[in-house]
Amino acid sequence: MSDFLSLGISDSIVRTLNSYNILEPTPIQEKAIPVAMASKDLMAQAQTGTGKTFAFLLPILEKIDPEAQHVQALIVTPTRELAL
Fold it and tell me: Which of 42, 51, 83, 84 is most buried (most C-beta within 10 Å)?
């Protein structure tokens, strides 16, 4: 199993994850994060509670420019649970 740093997640975000006892990526995160970090389109399916939200959210947080005044990310029905 890899760690978040090896998936391209910054040290500052990894420290924040660790403070919430999120220490290692789940299988869906291991597969999805590198694809999203490469700015590729991604569709993934996994059971509830497997970390899908972080799988797409962490790469967005890495790439977003807080100073930019334009739309940088669009999330359309990310998970069934969040869509409800």
Answer: 51
